[in-house]
Amino acid sequence: MNDGNRRRHSQAIHAGFDPLEHHGAVSVPIYQSSTFVFPSAEEGARRFEGSSNGLIYTRLGNPTIAALEECVASLEGGVGAVGTAAGMAAVAATVLALVDAGQHVAGTHPLYGPSRGLMEKHLARFGITSTFVPAGDGQALRAALRPETRLVFVETPANPTLDLVDLAEAAEIAHRHGARLVVDNTFASPHLQRPLEHGADVVLHSMTKFLNGHSDVVAGIVVAREAGVLARLRDVVQAFGFNMDPHQAWLVLRGVRTLGMRVDRAQANAMAIAPWLERHPMVKWVRYPGLASHPQHELARRQMAGPGAMIAFELHGGVEAGRRLMNAVQLITLAVSLGGVESLIEHPASMTHRSVPEEERRRQGITPGLVRLAVGCEDVEDLLADLAQAFSRVDSPA
Ligand code: 7XF
User: Which letter, b or e, does each residue of 140-176 get, where b requires 16 or more Cβ atoms within 10 Å of its Cβ?
Assistant: First the structure.
């Protein structure tokens, strides 16, 4: 199958799966089996040796997981992908596969709080050092690279401020120093942004979010541009047991088939909600890549197919007013996570980015009053009505 020539919706619906290889099943079967029979002892030995690519054991490979991996690799335009048990396992596998003790990661901030924590707290114990510079500052990124830097790690749009990283510039900086560019593409999804086309070497996702899209699975994936990098990633995932399981993979496959439709609809809703928020007298500021007021609006137009469905904003009343708003919404759900069909609202400073020290949060623009809205696929009139009624109750919390 030459999936690469198909357009985005067709790829999401068909890539990675040929029904004729599975008794004609139109939906990918769930190969819920931990282990696979060898036709002979000699063939078993060949599979372990690598001279035959037949199936062995699900931690090492499984057809349902492989179908999802091929689909996402095709959507991102990579040579292949490795599914992981969570987005955090995708982050961990990437650094462990590509950085050794004594080497360095140069990253941008903000990142999802625990991604940075993984590097500064856990991987630091194994001699991997890291430095983080502001997302929009190419000069600072250039200055952060050292001879021992192996990875440039960026998230764009960044969680939760929606700052952007110029991918072409970051790739140029990384490659000039012999480092690889890794992009956490969770907030955009491959429907809106394909970092490998801008020079990135590795793309990773929390598939918990847009790729799955139904708030019922925690999963991750790493996509590579080169076969050698893919082999290293797969080796680490197998060695550490970061793999996903077949049922989880099937659920994500079911979700990913409608990726484009969900993202397009959620984005259309966000494109109506962001200007509505910006006009609201109780709102101090709104950050959304689709608004002309976003400092990197032009970059968003250049490197993304659309501004996405994530919005950050703050009320004039700060953290207290934000809390009252979050307690007052009725259709919108107060919960962390994003990328599902339902709209979710949360408070990064006390929730998703609680692990980032307060002073560091301020430096990154994660103000105490920042509210993050993950726009879903409901009817936009209902979302706006819910926000309007919630705003009307902010001044009278009772
Ligand atoms: O291990 P997970 O599937 O939860 O993924 C971790 C992860 C990695 N990268 C980005 C950009 C993420 O946003 C996440 C998870 N973020 C959720 C959130 O921000 O709501 C986690 C909820 S505590």
Answer: ebbebbeeebbbbbbbbbbbbbbbbbbbbebbbbbee
Q: Is the Cβ–Cβ distance between 204 and 220 less than 8 Å?
A: yes
Q: Which atom of ligand 1 is nearest to the CA of 187?
A: 11
Strands, DSSP E only, in the chain?
80-84, 104-109, 129-134, 149-155, 180-184, 202-206, 220-224, 283-287, 310-315, 333-334, 344-346, 371-374
Note the CATH number of domain 259-392: 3.90.1150.10
Q: How far is the CA of 207 from the centre of ligand 1 (A)?
A: 9
Which CATH number does 7-256 carry? 3.40.640.10
Q: Which amino acid is at 330?
A: Q
pLDDT tens profile 171-183: 999 999 999 999 9
pTM: 0.97
Pocket lining for ligand 1, CB < 6 angstroms: 86-88, 112, 115, 155, 159, 184, 186-187, 206, 208, 218, 220, 336-338, 352
Domain(s) labelled CATH 3.90.1150.10 in the chain stretch across 259-392
Q: Tell me if residue 302 is catalytic.
A: no
Average of per-residue pLDDT values in the chain: 96
What distance lies between CA 198 and its chain's CA centroid? Answer: 17
Q: Confidence class of residue 398 from pLDDT cuts 50, 70 and 90?
A: very low
